[in-house]
Amino acid sequence: MKAGLALLLVAYAMSQFYRVFFAVLSPALARDIGAGPADLALASSLWFAVFAAMQIPVGWALDRVGPRRTVLVIFGVGASLGALGFALARTPLEMQLATALIGAGCAPVLMSAWFVLLRSVSAAAFAMLAGVVIGVGSVGNLAGSLPFAAAVEAWGWRASMAALAVLSAGLALGIAMLLRDPERVEAPAGRAGEGFGALLRMPLLWPIFALMIVTYAPSAGLRGLWIGPWAEQVHGLDAAGLGRITLVVAIAMTAGFVLFGPLARWTGAGRALLLGGHTLAAALCLWLWAVPGAALLPAVAAMSAIGFIGGAYALVIAHAQRFVPEHLSGRGLTLLNLMGIGGVGLGQFVTGRLFAGAEAAGAEGAAVFAPVFLAYGLALALGTLCYLAAKDAPSRA
Question: 190 near 367, Cβ under 8 Å?
């Protein structure tokens, strides 16, 4: 089990990599296949939209057939073929379709690791370990910055993506051989037909859903997409410079994932941490909107703080999961993840449209990015206001 879980963490690191590598590739993709910022925004939004849509079948599969076969089929096929298709892409459309396939393939990895933990440790330990899993997996986020920029410079982006396709296939086979499925939990009498609908009919979950939709969208959107074009167009950074600043933001995101769970456990104030953190993140997004041409260092510091607060993602899920019946735990995890990742995809789509609209309206330089920051700030503010109605989670053994 431990070896299989370790490989799941490696696969999750690849999933983190696959959602952020656009920032480093933006100059090369513009040069080689004519993909501009709007094309990359659509590709990134497709990644997250398909990833989110796949949470429905993934949740069912985790509860019914277990994580081992789920990862083998979905990650093994989707991630490897998608990465290979990306390596062979000749047009923005081909790149976008390959990216969507990668998103589908990455859908079950984190949920499978969390599903194993949820069935193996106490609820309090899960709240802490869920974030640690993301923190460890965020090595992929780090690898998608300066290390990937170095690989692309040395071997080219096509060869680098082809190598990732091979690695993805090998990981899926290793997980299939080494991972053991947790014991299946049967539904209580009279509740065998329950599914996602039963969760959606629980009003206690609705304020948490509202926060879940926005909690990760700004950090993922800024780190995975917008920081690259913003730094290149506003501050003239080259690939190496982009690698350095994306590494800084990636480190901040990793720290947030690792630290939010322990902070909540030590202080006993998880809900207050979520409210205060998201309020601060909203304020920082609105500052970036008000001063889109801010100096590089303070702007990157603000984006890093937003990234750190996005690390509360696992804590939001842990809050909601305490209300979810055990026989629906797989579907509970994936429903929440659908909302979180779907929020990222929606954010990418909306901000891409806003960016294109600003360009069409004649905005230039830093001003063209202002609507992006405004949209993220308003979304965070609205989600945080809704979360004020959330109840404290009940205790579980």
Answer: no
For the chain, what are the domain ranges?
2-180+199-387
pLDDT at 393: 64
- C-alpha distances (whole Å) from 70 to each of 17, 20, 49, 333 are 20, 24, 19, 15
Question: In whole angstroms, what separates CA 15 from the centre of its chain?
Answer: 9
Distance separating alpha carbons of residues 109 and 125, to the nearest angstrom: 20
| Residue 97 token pair | 């379709």
> What pLDDT does 397 receive?
44
What CATH number was assigned to the domain covering residues 2-180+199-387?
1.20.1250.20
- The SS3 assignment for 65 reads coil
Whose structure tokens read 């963490």? 9
CA–CA separation, 218 vs 202, rounded Å? 27
Q: How many CA atoms lie within 13 A of 323 on its CB side?
A: 21
DSSP string over 122-148: -HHHHHHHHHHHHHHHTHHHHHTTHHH
pLDDT in tens, 14-31: 998 887 787 788 888 888
> In angstroms, rounded to a whole number, what is the distance separating the alpha carbons of residues 304 and 166?
32
Q: Which amino acid is at 310?
A: G
Cα→Cα distances 72→79, 125, 227, Å = 11, 27, 34
What does the angle CA 201 – CA 190 – CA 333 come to, to the nearest 5 degrees? Answer: 45
Phi and psi based region of residue 66 (left: phi greater than 0; alpha: psi -120 to 50; beta: remaining): left
CA 223 to chain centre: 10
Two tokens, residue 284: 């920082």
pLDDT in tens, 322-358: 888 878 888 899 899 889 888 988 898 899 899 999 9
The candidate with the shortest Cα–Cα distance to 41, out of 394, 349, 382, 357, is 349
| pTM, entire model | 0.77
**Residue 386 is encoded by which pair of tokens?**
């809704």
d(CA 361, CA 77): 42
Which residue is listed with tokens 């073929």?
81
Contact yes or no for 285/377 (Cβ under 8 A): yes
Low pLDDT (below 70) residues in the chain: 1, 141, 185, 187-193, 393-397
- Residue 148 has a pLDDT of 82
